[in-house]
């Protein structure tokens, strides 16, 4: 559900979107400006729904979002997380199918939306944009391949260590240099690591006892990154 009570600077949002596609000419930039819409979402608001028709490309302007897939027994798996300024939610359009995933906001999040019909028009006129989108999809496919193998083959400690390092690489750290710049619930960490919430809690506590991390509510500090990487690599 979109929140409409705050004032959005359309020009600022447009600038961020256009910064993602520097190869667009003036006519193409005007086309983006004309068709761009903006949604504001609170924490856990739905951005798009599994089985929806993929009519929009989404660009995360600010905040954080997660892409999930519903599984058996009501369990959800976090497939990927999205950071500013990044495209998401458009793969299904090119494969001519409905969304296989759904997306939620981690926190208050601003999302720019552009109709896929407009994206296709831009791609037909701008080969550099085509290459950029192909590269982005290729990177996501490679990351998905790696995560699939790791989530299946690694033990619980390795999976959780990898998830913490993945979040650090994706969102960075606070000014102290070690606190993750994202505050996840234990359930979200479990869904990202393909484990139960109770296992995620126990493994986090073990990492804290081993002084690999420090925990303050939902805040997690990575104290020994190299040791955590060894845990992740050993699986």
Please provide a written account of the structure.
This protein has 235 residues and is an alpha+beta fold. 46% of the residues lie in helices and 21% in strands. It is built from nine helices and ten strands.
What key phrases describe this protein's structure?
single chain, 235 residues, alpha+beta, four-stranded antiparallel β-sheet
Layout: helices, strands, pairs:
Layout: H1 10-20, H2 26-35, E1 37-41, E2 46-48, E3 56-62, E4 65-70, E5 76-82, E6 86-88, H3 91-94, E7 102-105, E8 109-115, H4 116-125, H5 127-153, H6 156-171, H7 186-193, H8 197-209, E9 213-216, E10 219-222, H9 225-234
Antiparallel strand pairs: 1-8, 2-7, 3-6, 3-8, 4-5, 4-7, 9-10
Helix pairs in contact: 4-5, 6-7, 6-9, 7-8
Radius of gyration: 19 Å
- The SSE string, one letter per element, is HHEEEEEEHEEHHHHHEEH
Mean of residue pLDDT?
A: 91
Strand element count? 10
- Indicate the proportion of strand residues: 15-25%
Short description:
The chain has helices spanning 10-20, 26-35, 91-94, 116-125, 127-153, 156-171, 186-193, 197-209, 225-234; strands spanning 37-41, 46-48, 56-62, 65-70, 76-82, 86-88, 102-105, 109-115, 213-216, 219-222. The chain has 235 residues and is an alpha+beta fold. The strands form 3 sheets. The chain has a 4-stranded antiparallel beta sheet with strand order 1-8-3-6. A 4-stranded antiparallel beta sheet has the order 2-7-4-5.
């Amino acid at each position: 559900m979109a929140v409409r009570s705050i004032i959005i600077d359309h020009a600022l949002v447009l600038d961020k979107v256009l910064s993602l596609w520097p190869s667009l000419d003036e006519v193409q930039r005007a086309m983006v400006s004309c068709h761009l819409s903006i949604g504001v979402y609170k924490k856990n608001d739905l951005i798009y729904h599994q089985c929806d028709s993929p009519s929009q490309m989404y660009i995360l302007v600010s905040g954080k979002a997660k892409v999930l897939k519903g599984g058996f027994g009501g369990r959800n798996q976090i497939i990927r997380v999205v950071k500013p300024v990044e495209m998401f939610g458009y793969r299904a359009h090119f494969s001519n199918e409905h969304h296989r995933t759904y997306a939620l906001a981690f926190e208050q999040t601003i999302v720019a939306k552009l109709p896929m019909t407009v994206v296709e028009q831009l791609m037909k006129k701008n080969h550099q944009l085509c290459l950029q989108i192909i590269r982005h999809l290729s990177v996501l496919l490679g990351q998905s391949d790696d995560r699939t193998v790791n989530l299946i083959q690694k033990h619980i400690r390795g999976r959780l260590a990898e998830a913490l390092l993945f979040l650090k690489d994706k969102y960075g750290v606070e000014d102290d240099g070690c606190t993750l710049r994202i505050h996840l619930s234990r359930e979200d960490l479990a869904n990202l690591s393909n484990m139960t919430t109770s296992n995620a809690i126990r493994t986090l506590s073990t990492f804290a006892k081993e002084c690999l991390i420090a925990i303050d509510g939902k805040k997690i500090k990575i104290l020994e990154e190299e040791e955590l990487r060894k845990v992740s690599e050993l699986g």
